[in-house]
Amino acid sequence: PPRPAGMGDVPEPCPQAPLAVLSKVELRVSCKHLLDRDTLNKSDPCVLLLMQSQGQWMEVDRSEVIKSNLNPVFAKIFTVDYYFEEVQKLRFEVYDSHGQAGVGTHDDDFLGGMECTVGQIVAQKRVTKPLFLKYGKFAGKSTITIISEEISGNNGYVELAFRAKKLDDKDLFSKSDPFLEIYRIDDDRSEQLVYRTEVVKNNLSPIWEPFKVSLNSLCSCEEKRKLRCVVWDYDSRGKHDFIGEFFTTFEEMQKAMGENKVQWDCMNPKYKIKKRNYKNSGVVVLLDLKIHRVYSFLDYIMGGCQIHFTVAIDFTASNGDPRNSCSLHYINPYQPNEYLKALVAVGEICQDYDSDKKFSALGFGARIPPKYEVSHDFAINFNPDNDECEACPSETPPPGIQGVVESYQSCLPKIQLYGPTNVAPIISKVARVAADEERTKEASQYFILLILTDGVVTDMADTREAIVRASYLPMSIIIVGVGNADFTDMQILDGDDGVLRSPKGEPVLRDIVQFVPFREFKNASPTALAKCVLAEVPKQVVEYYSYKAFPPRCPRPPTSDPSLGSPQ
User: Fold this and answer.
1) CA 400/CA 410 separation, integer angstroms
2) How far is it, in rounded angstroms, from Cα 467 to Cα 431?
3) Which residues contact 55 (CB under 8 A, 6 or more apart)?
4) How far is CA 278 from CA 166, 169, 228, 282, in A?
5) Residue 141 to residues 71, 126, 131: CA-CA distances in angstroms?
6) Which of 88, 190, 403, 508 is a Cys-bridge partner for 118, taking CB atoms 3.0 to 4.6 Å apart?
């Protein structure tokens, strides 16, 4: 039976070479004149979407199976990220499915494939190409059509719940098996399948499962765009019987919000002409409609969300004596060390989103005055009541990151580098502040913790536990490995190779950690490092506030502060 359409996910691009996502693109697939592989019935086609990654074809998603149909229109919508500066190769493979066995991979099940790029589909908007079997052989007259649509930035989605009453009975020995299809009518009068419900067996008053579709898919974000809704009686051989149809708009559907309901007569035009007393072929009722706005990173920033930046610096003995030129902490008046380079590169970006331009700066792994006991979460300005660093008064205007640089340089002669490399205490410290912010239930502050370290952490179990806890808070963690140590074990903290879990097996709610070895950017510009480590932050901010269902606050009035740029 036709399955509800879903949304596909594409693996993230390599974190070491982040790309700017221009937009997300929805792909709709249909086929014509497919080969008939079945003896008694027609083929039961399913489409697999594959994307090429590092020379290998990886399955991204697959469509529903449509029974006994050589000209299928799939309800499944594939969603891919579109990168202008990258050639993104796609491959669509059509297979004949075999019931519970699912989609086969044998040659006998293969109905044809087609390769293209995301760019080609986006540029042409509608691509129709022949399907090929292996060795470049045409799959008869089979063709596949891909229609692309960009998801607009202000897109949201709508949740709909339909039922029907007293539908016509199309079956002789049982009742109809109805399902509902919704089509969007485009400007050129063509129809795009938006959604296909599940089949409700043997029922003339079915209640279909609620479903979600993007407003872009449903009506191109135009409330008055006409929609055609069709009710069918399902047939396992693919010859579905038409029960009736009705036309509506999203504007009309919205009357069903709250306690209200909207209903339409399900009409069969042929019966209307032939039958004098014909009223309808049943009634379709919209039981509920919920609109969910999807907010962007900019929505939150422009609504007044502040990015609070904290830097944590590794002062363990493995860095070397700061007085020695070979030390990673050596202060060269002519050339900043790797700690300073990473700190300034990331901090200069973050300071634009922090109104007071004061950054918290912490240290770990050193003996500190006055008792010279080891601390793993001390303020480098040695003020336990206020760890925010301010630049000296001579700085006009005082750059936020400059205060941290000055505190770092002033701190080095006063401490004794020691160990071990424990970072869980600092993660937990920032998490406590983020937890206080969470209780406000507003999108007002998001916390970024930049950890600069020269080696693999020694409290890995506690660190994993702290990260899992932090994943539930408005917080992201960036770890930059400084020096030439082997950071292989640090990759486990970055969820790119799998879901990070606590020692007890609890997974992170969100992937909030980004790890990068600084040596990979030694010869690159500072902006390259900043782009890499901050690339995931906008997505992480939106994921957190979406999970919490916190909308952006009311937008602030345009600023006239010259240090913040011209009014937006």
Assistant:
1) 16
2) 9
3) none
4) 14, 15, 21, 11
5) 12, 19, 8
6) 88
Joined tokens for residue 108: 């006998």
Enter the tokens of residue 479: 């770890």
Q: Residue 424: what pLDDT?
A: 97
Whose tokens are 């006009």? That residue is: 396
Torsion of Cα atoms, 464 then 469 then 472 then 474, to 10°: -90
Cβ-contact 433, 447 below 8 angstroms: yes
User: What pLDDT, on the 0 to 100 scale, is given for residue 440?
Assistant: 85
Domains of the chain: 23-151 (2.60.40.150), 157-292 (2.60.40.150), 309-524 (3.40.50.410)
Residues 479 and 474: their CA atoms lie apart, in Å, by 17
Q: How confident is the model at residue 23 (pLDDT cuts 50, 70, 90)?
A: low
Q: Please report, as a single letter, which amino acid is at residue 198.
A: E
64-119 pLDDT, tens digit each: 999 999 999 999 999 998 776 577 899 999 999 876 555 655 655 899 999 999 88
The total number of residues shown for the chain amounts to: 568
Angstrom distance (rounded) from CA 217 to CA 294: 14
Two tokens, residue 324: 């020695």
